[in-house]
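hey so i finally got around to running the thing on that chain from the lab meeting. sorry it took forever, my laptop kept dying and i had to restart like 3 times. anyway pasting the input first so we r on the same page abt which one it is
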Amino acid sequence: MLGRFDRFQRRHAALAVPVAVLRKFGDDEGPNLTGLIAFRAFFSLFPLLLLLTTVLGYVLSGDPALRDEAFHSVLSRFPVVGEQLRAGNLEGNAVALALGIAGSLWAGFGVVLATERALDRVWAIPFHQRRNFLASRLRALLLLAVLGLLTLASTLLSGLAGGGVPLLGPFAGRLALSLALNLLLFAAVFALLGSRRPRPRQLLPGVLLAAGAWTVLQLVGGYFVAHEIKNATPAYGTFALVLGLLVWLQLGATLVVLCAELNVVRARGLWPRSLAGVELPADERVLAGLVRSQARDPDQRVDIDFDEEADDPHRAPRDGAAR
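ok and heres what got predicted. didnt touch it at all, straight out
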């Protein structure tokens, strides 16, 4: 059955491209790449919580009505913030504010760098062609503000739409604006974060798919927060929020890497792929790219060859680029 499906998918691009994307995702050790991005993103939430707690302390100070409204909102389910709201001792602190800002920048910096390394791996960029230590960090610092603001704005709009909050116009308007922001976000991520800048048309499929799927993911997250966490008990609400965030961030990281893989597969013609091993030219080109990407010095030469299996008459001819 696997052999019949393999032969069928090779002849039909609608199946061959997704299969090639999944095969390359596995070849690039995609779960490790997405796990690192998700971990960095989850770690960044803690300084953000410190920053949120401090800002709320300043904003709610001396306003009992606003404090009561915040107490009955979903904020009361957030770790640390909810406990301080229920205890009524939430207040601003200049040192905590400074630490929250510095920690958020540092943690967000790690998310950007992890995403950059993942894109370099997906595009099989040799180590000696990647940005050096200083250049990658300066670029990450510059991009962090832009990407962070786009992500925050699109998530807020989709969250309001998913939660049914009558703010900023009708549902369709909020959703369209969020989708437009996500298109800008992923166009910037795929075009600017990697060490090599692909042509715009090479990025179009991944940008469109990522923006649409990310918008849906944000809608689901907004609905989950507004209708499930808000009505849960404090203990279960905290567990639901933390576990929900972990799943949400992992799905988001997986989405980014898979859409980047789609761009590479289509741009370099890395399909169809075989399900039975290294049998097709695309299989050899992918494996050759993985080996060449490990070159650490411009003068380092990497030669790759694949043994011909004389007893396999169905084996496709070896592609010259894989030698």
